[in-house]
Amino acid sequence: MFKKVLSSLGFGCATIDTVIGEQEVVAGQPLHAELQVRGGDTEQDIQAVILELVTECRVEMTENASRRGEVVVASSRIEVGRIGANEERTIPLRLDVPAGAPVTDGSTKSELRTRLEILGGIDPRDSDQVKILPTPVVAAILQGMKKAGFLLVDTEVEHRPDDPSHPVVQEFDFRPVPAVDFGVDDVELSFFPIEGGVEVLVMADSRAGIRGGQHAEPIRLEVMETDIAGLDFAAKLRAAIGETG
After folding, report:
1. Which of 77, 87, 116, 196 maximizes the CB count within 10 A of its CB?
2. pTM score, two decimals?
3. Which Pfam family, just one, is annotated for this protein (predicted)?
4. Which has more confidence, 167 or 202?
């Protein structure tokens, strides 16, 4: 009985270690891992394993203000049951990463957090860094911006809890290299996954004196996965930026 009381306080309770198959995952693909559970000094009832893919990023609050924060991008709950004293158990884990999950770049970073829900006890926890890579079409667009003469400065995440179709939108902030002059100070790209591709929102800040240093009207582009092989992304992006700037 005394050992059970100690377990409920966190002494001699079950411990966990999450082993991720690959530290990198492409947005839109599943993340696979194993949870290694070792029972404590007494048997315990584990209600569930809770998985959360959490992104730490600059979260946009208003148009001109942001703060460091965390956004839960994906989560899953897996039933477990009772684990015996000193029992060792391996539980396979799978978490579907959304196609719109924020890409790891700049100040945007993600980690997989795992915890056990233990009835009447303290929940063991674990966390592991995960690098989220862009989808092939988003990667091609980002490479196109580089070829067009723009450097990625930072990324920011807009949290939209009231928009179930796009609850998290990542914004990529670019600036032209000194040798390039489009009449803009910076360009912002946002990506919205669609069937077979992505919709890109292109916004440019015009240089003061051209349009008063204000946001021009944004341009929306649809880029499909089938465009990757034959489309000149740099030329298409230059044209779009020219329209907005």
Report:
1. 116
2. 0.82
3. Spo0M
4. 202
